[in-house]
Amino acid sequence: MSEAESFLNDVLQGLAASRPALPCKYLYDQRGSALFEAICQTQDYYITRADLALHDLYLDEISLLIGPDAHVIEFGSGAGIKTRKLLASLNQPRAYTPIEISASALNESETLLRRQFPDLEIRPLRADYTQAIDDEELLLEPPARRRVIYFPGSTISNFDHEEARHFLARLLSVIGDQGGVLIGVDLLKPTERLVRAYDDSEGITAQFNLNLLERMVRELDARIELDAFAHEARFNEEQNRIEMHLLAQRDTTIEIGNHRFAFRQGESIHTENSHKYSIDGFRSLAVSAGLTATQTWTDPEGLFSMHWLTVSKPGTNASP
User: Fold this and answer.
1) Is the pLDDT of residue 258 over 50?
2) Distance of alpha carbon 264 from alpha carbon 209, whole angstroms
3) Residue 317 pLDDT
4) Cβ–Cβ contacts within 10 Å for residue 17, how many?
5) pLDDT per residue as tens digits for the range 41-73
6) Dist CA 191 CA 239 (whole Å)
7) Is the distance from CB of 269 to CB of 246 less than 8 angstroms?
8) What is residue 187's DSSP assignment?
9) CB 241 within 8 A of CB 276
10) What percent of the chain has pLDDT over 90?
11) 27, 53, 233, 301: which sits with the fewest CB atoms below 10 Å from its CB?
12) What three-state secondary structure class fits 268?
């Protein structure tokens, strides 16, 4: 099935659900990705700044923990500053594999990193990292001393807890007994600050969310009254997550081909989740997936965390 067919099928299925929802991956077309980069620069979106501050503070410690001759496998194409900082800090890394479903993002990442790290073996892999990765694609000859999955930012937040547990459990087969996972996790904090981060005062997150409807018009020939929907960010206390919605401001319809979906005023399309964790809460989740956080770091303000996960040994529990 082509990407266009998958997009159409997911949209039709999502809009027909009793609680309409669309996969968050469709927020990130070319314009959506550019808007997300702009979001990361806003004053209200603290995550990028906190993650960078954490890297700057602990990168020497992290690189010593990873050690020499490591095969770094990044989930997401890593041409950003955090990836460059990590690779530059490592002692003789064996290879770097960015895994990304977007060919253009993967090519851009490869070009930028080959320019900065001409002596590093870079092995881009086009794949959906939320699905099983064929180990044949990751084999090196000779093998690296250890594999390290690098998953910065807060992408794990987009999975619900059961999805996150299954995702983490799949990493066991990638890293093996000697490997590790370096993963970023956003932390719980006052609701007002969380909501503001996903509904910034500059209105860029609103453009980002509404761009999904515009993408449906562009790519699926959908008939949508774009001004009938507005961006809304809300905190779900029961699930400890921020939710992004496209909220109908009046009665309206979305038509795609012969399909018609009616929305009453106040009904919404759920487009993204961002789960927030306590440190102990994430450690417990990791243990349930067979991994143990042997080291945890936070930025100076305590807004964001990074965890070094290794395969749990017998008798491991969720205690910090």
Assistant:
1) yes
2) 19
3) 53
4) 11
5) 999 999 999 999 999 999 999 999 999 999 999
6) 13
7) yes
8) B
9) yes
10) 84
11) 301
12) strand
β-sheet bridge partners, residue 255 = 223, 260
First-to-last C-alpha distance (Å) of the chain: 45
The pTM (predicted TM-score) of the whole model is 0.89
What is residue 319's predicted lDDT score, i.e. its pLDDT? 43
Structural tokens at position 248: 């109908």
In terms of pLDDT, which residue wins out, 33 or 255?
255
Task: Name the residue with tokens 């890394």.
Answer: 93
Tell me whether strands 223-224 and 252-256 are parallel, antiparallel or unpaired: antiparallel
Question: Quick one: which of 204, 201, 202, 207 has its CA closest to 226?
Answer: 207
Separation of alpha carbons 70 and 29, rounded Å: 32
Q: Which residues share a beta bridge with 187?
A: 277
Average pLDDT, the chain: 93
CA torsion sign for 291, 294, 297, 298 is: positive
The Cα 212–Cα 28 span in angstroms is 8
Residues 201-222 pLDDT 10s: 999 999 999 999 999 999 999 9
Tokens at 239, concatenated: 């699930």
* Contact (CB, 8 A) for 272 and 24: yes
- Alpha-carbon span 202 to 29, nearest angstrom: 21
- Name beta bridge partners: 311: 291
Position 315 scores a pLDDT of 60
Spatial distance between the Cα atoms of 3 and 55, rounded to a whole number of angstroms: 35
